[in-house]
């Protein structure tokens, strides 16, 4: 389809930015916070842990002021479950409740819409020790946690996201499971229990928060076949269903994707589904979909000769292949970042069109951005023109998706501020705002606005990139 004229981004478009609690807050053991699986995570040699991060916990007001100066319409952040319930369930930590209450009030006083992720990779360690998501007690704990959030913040928070990247937690489980890595069978049980927990929270949100909107936030990407060989097309179809559609089909249609169910049966990975689970899942109706998009993936047919699975490096955007199911293929049409992630702005349009076409629900881009080795220059500035270029291309494709008819309600790049990347610490930065610290050397934690910050400010003011 060719268009003479691009549609404008809608009025009240939620130009935002994202972070997650464990990657930005620090203060990992302060004011009654309990340990999460991320707090016990041992980073590789030379990479920082998540204990201090960008110390947002102690810089909250200063950071929100920078958001306001940027002109953000929305801020997507996550709540640390262990600040609210240090043991995952049971006793409530009032100081933790207060921190997010203050943050939400601060955002609202600056006209910034809070978009709250309830759970972003930081399962309470106490729950983990009792089996984590394999144990159905974690579903009850999540429901208790959800109730506390809705009771305390439901009067002001209109946009809720249940679980960040459930599909990444299942497909790349290493960073979320300290100790023994779960088997695939266990992972799909975790996955099912998360579906039930998210469904219960969705129903609760609708009961407890008048006007509240809630949805999932998976990492979704179109999967391309390496060639037009029908075998490659089938492999791409299979992997797109296993990686992406499973998660949105359960959330939106309230049923398992049939291709994926057949795969689970064949492999012996089917989860135990208790009586009533599917009724709860079917009853829970999301109001919108969060989509984290970084890059497409290209796959070819599996050879099933013991070589389909490539060595895993844990990165969520790097496909690893699965014996007999698909194998990762190279896409010579795309560039890659310094960290091996594909850059595919048009792929974002493809992805948004596919998601909207399947589900017909409003979409909020909850993450997208460029991880780079930003350097503080001698002039005291960060000239991240590569990030501006990346975002400009993606914003353009988002606008094309809007022109295609996709109901896109907002765009929250990752990240508002530099934070600890899931695998590469501060060596891989995403923020509009630089944090002056190294891996070990905390320096002065000063906030410095990058060139991309000033560029994004103009985009927001104009409600879009220049024509
Ligand atoms: C998403 C996660 O998968 O990608 C974020 O939701 C993460 O938590 C982001 O930081 C970028 O990934 P990374 O590995 O570069 O930090």
TrEMBL record:
GO process annotations (BP): carbohydrate catabolic process
Keyword Metal-binding part of the UniProt annotation: no
InterPro entries for the chain: GH, GH_1_N_CS, Glyco_hydro_1, Glyco_hydro_1_AS
Active site: 367 (nucleophile)
Pfam families: Glyco_hydro_1 (PF00232)
A GO MF term: beta-glucosidase activity
UniProt keywords, alphabetically: Glycosidase, Hydrolase
Family note: Belongs to the glycosyl hydrolase 1 family.
Protein name: 6-phospho-beta-glucosidase
Naturally occurring in which organism (per UniProt): Anaerostipes butyraticus
């Amino acid at each position: 389809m060719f268009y003479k004229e691009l549609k404008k981004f809608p009025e009240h478009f939620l130009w935002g930015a994202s972070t997650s609690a464990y990657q930005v807050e620090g203060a990992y053991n302060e004011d009654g916070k309990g340990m999460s699986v991320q707090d016990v995570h041992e980073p590789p040699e030379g990479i920082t842990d998540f204990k201090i991060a960008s110390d947002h916990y102690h810089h909250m007001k200063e950071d929100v002021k920078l958001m306001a100066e940027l002109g953000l319409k929305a801020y997507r952040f996550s709540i640390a479950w262990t600040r609210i319930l240090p043991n995952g369930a049971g006793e409530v930590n009032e100081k933790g409740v207060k921190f997010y209450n203050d943050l939400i009030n601060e955002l609202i006083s600056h006209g910034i819409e809070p978009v709250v992720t309830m759970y972003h990779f930081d399962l309470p360690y106490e729950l983990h020790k009792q089996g984590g998501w394999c144990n159905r007690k974690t579903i009850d704990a999540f429901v208790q946690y959800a109730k506390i959030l809705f009771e305390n913040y439901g009067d002001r928070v209109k946009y809720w996201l249940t679980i960040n990247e459930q599909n990444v937690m299942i497909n790349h489980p290493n960073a979320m499971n300290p100790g023994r890595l779960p088997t695939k069978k266990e992972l799909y049980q975790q996955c099912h229990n998360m579906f039930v927990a998210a469904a219960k929270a969705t129903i609760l949100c609708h009961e407890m928060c008048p006007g509240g909107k809630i949805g999932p936030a998976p990492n979704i990407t179109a999967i391309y076949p390496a060639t037009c060989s029908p075998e490659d097309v089938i492999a791409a179809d299979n992997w797109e269903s296993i990686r992406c559609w499973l998660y949105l089909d359960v959330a939106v249609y309230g049923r398992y994707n049939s291709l994926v169910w057949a795969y689970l049966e064949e492999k012996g990975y089917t989860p135990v589904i208790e009586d009533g689970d599917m009724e709860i899942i079917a009853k829970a109706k999301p109001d919108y979909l969060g989509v984290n998009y970084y890059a497409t993936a290209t796959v070819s047919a599996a050879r099933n000769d013991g070589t389909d699975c490539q060595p895993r490096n844990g990165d969520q955007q790097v496909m690893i292949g699965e014996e007999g199911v698909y194998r990762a293929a190279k896409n010579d049409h795309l560039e890659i970042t310094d960290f091996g992630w594909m850059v595919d702005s048009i792929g974002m349009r493809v992805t948004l069109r596919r998601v909207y076409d399947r589900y017909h629900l409003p979409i909020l881009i909850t993450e997208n951005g460029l991880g780079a080795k930003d350097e503080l220059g001698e002039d005291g500035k960060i000239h991240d023109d590569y990030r501006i270029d990346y975002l400009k291309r993606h914003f353009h494709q988002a606008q094309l998706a809007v022109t295609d008819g996709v109901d896109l309600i907002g765009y929250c790049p990752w990240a508002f501020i530099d934070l600890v990347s899931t695998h590469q610490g501060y060596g891989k930065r995403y923020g509009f705002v630089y944090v002056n610290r190294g891996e070990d050397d905390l320096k002065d934690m000063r906030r410095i606005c990058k060139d991309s910050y000033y560029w994004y400010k103009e985009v927001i003011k104009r409600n879009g990139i220049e024509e």
